[in-house]
Amino acid sequence: MSADDALTEIFRTEWSRVVATLVRELRDLELAEDVAQEAFVEASTRWAEDGVPRRPGAWLLTTARRRAIDRLRRDRRFANRLPDLVTGDTEQPDDRTIADDQLALIFGCCHPALDDEARVALTLRSVAGLSTREIARAFLVTEPTMAKRLVRAKHRIRATGIPFTVPESDRLADRLSAVCGVVYAIFTEGHRRSDGVELLRPVLCDEAIWLAETLVELLPGDPEVLGLAALVLLTDARRPARTDEDGNVVLLADQDRSLWDREKIDRGLAYLGAAHRRRRVGVYQLLASIASLHATAESHETTAWSSILSVYDVLLLRYPTPVLALNRAVAVAEVHGPDAALGAIDELAGSLDDYEYLHSTRAELLHRTGRTDEAAAAMGRAIGLSGNDSEIAWMRERIASWERIAD
Fold first, then answer.
1. What does pTM read for this prediction?
2. Residue 363 in contact with residue 376, Cβ under 8 Å?
């Protein structure tokens, strides 16, 4: 393996560990990221000449600390932090300390005092290690715009004193729920981008999976963390079949299931089994249970739709949201027919009238009942609400196919 390949692999495993340790020592996220990045840049030069050190994480942390000391000596604002860094422990922390530091970094980046946009961007930058350019590209904004968002978020952290600590036990569940929500939001945007040309943003799917599995490593006994990891893996396993060679959308019913990633399915099922053994059910486990029923079905027709409907019933009792009710309506259509599902969807029209998937789902159901003109009108409404070119092209083709059949 070349030094460049080794550095790429080590960056993946060591970035968040190094940044997390530095955040604890420096008590400043921006400074920690800067010196960590400088350490990796130095490694790209030094390791090409000297080879990869036996303990690359320790090398990177030591180099970053030296860079931090140089900075602190030049900046009087941080003079009070210099003695602790110079006289403190210069060895790499043990695994438990590193795990605690990583958890503290994640909880800090996902702190409820930050808005949703800032939490997602900070998590991708500080925890996952994506560059500002990569995050900007994923969210279809310019690099300067994303850089400003990140700077504002870091300034807010400093101004409000947001702590990079693991919450006390009485607040851990609520804060962990927010962390899981950020990871799932990243995955959702990657799985079905809200705007742009293509349906998928693979980099966001990959980062969400990595973040979810990192949480499992750090909190292996938490059933909702296990459920989240199961959910993103079981859902993402379908990624290779979700678009055709031209990037066009392929519905679940029409997907070539031989293309599904069996390794991800197996990992997801293992996480879900571990979550169930904890006997504490939450939203991500329930959603993962639905995903598992899709993942293990041989075909769309043989899917256990009655079981899926039962899980949705439980979900709605615990977490009543219009989007979950819409997803349940799809299962209702498979179990009780499209007319029953249309009745359920009509009840959601007030709360989801600006949600394109309500109208596209309604269009498909109307078509199944033979009401082609109404179906085309509903799909037209969905087209007007969508910002994704791939989905718009698919919806237009659906209308055209219905018109061809009618003719």
1. 0.84
2. yes
